[in-house]
Write a structure and sequence with these properties.
Layout (H helix, E strand, L loop, with lengths): L3 E6 L6 H12 L2 E4 H14 L7 H10 L2 E2 L9 E3 L2 E3 L6 H10 L3 H12 L6 E6 L2 H5 L5 E6 L2 H14 L6 H17 L12 E4 L5 H14 L5
Parallel strand pairs: 1-6, 1-7, 2-6, 7-8
Antiparallel strand pairs: 3-4, 4-5
Bound molecules: cytidine-5'-monophosphate.
The site of cytidine-5'-monophosphate (C5P) has 15 residues, from helix 2, helix 4 and helix 8.
Length: 225
Amino acid sequence: MSIAVVTIDGPSGAGKGTVARLLAHALGFHLLDSGALYRILGQAALSRDLSTTDVPALVALANQLTVTFPYTASRTDVSVDGEVIGSVLRNQAVAEAASQLAIYPPVRQALLDLQRRMRRSPGLVGDGRDLGTVVFPDAHAKIFLDADVEVRAMRRYQELIEAGQTVELSAILRDLEIRDIRDRTREVAPLVPAADALVIDSSEKTPAEVLAAVNEYCRTKGIGI
Ligand code: C5P
């Protein structure tokens, strides 16, 4: 049997990252935060004064990337070329740049191979937009985690404030709506639930409640005990 993969897709702020980490921790699986890959390119574009439309340069960058996601029950780190990069990936400018460059098929293709190589024993939990539809269509369990846009904006706001950033809720809401539309309507790998995904609305659920539902579902698919 192929190496187990659980995919958790959905829009920004639905709680995918937290649930993916907790699930990976419970199962002892590897973790893939695919949004961070797009953010690394977004951050590189911003810091090198590169345009998010410069596809050949972005592909070259993507092809050089060596990324791992060391994590504990309470935090996920991103390690690029063996060095942990801090909160720099979490700001709004980086998220916006990531979403802009994510529309280009050659960029997505370059990151596709990288993501598939992360499927290693004993298993992988990955979160993103297209993991169940494009990256791992044969995943053993697929979840689509959604939530009302106002709830998602508030969660992102609290996360950024806790990280010490100065942000406005209304600006976050607007940015989320713009990114949502772009992610849902792009031609390649748009954000849609896989036909065989379990859809969960986390608007009125705690992370523990979502995790319980996801765990239960995974067990029905033969993952976990
Ligand atoms: O999940 P996160 O907010 O970190 O993702 C940042 C951006 O990267 C998203 O808005 C989306 O455009 C892009 N992305 C993607 N496919 C993925 C993960 C993220 O296109 N699997």
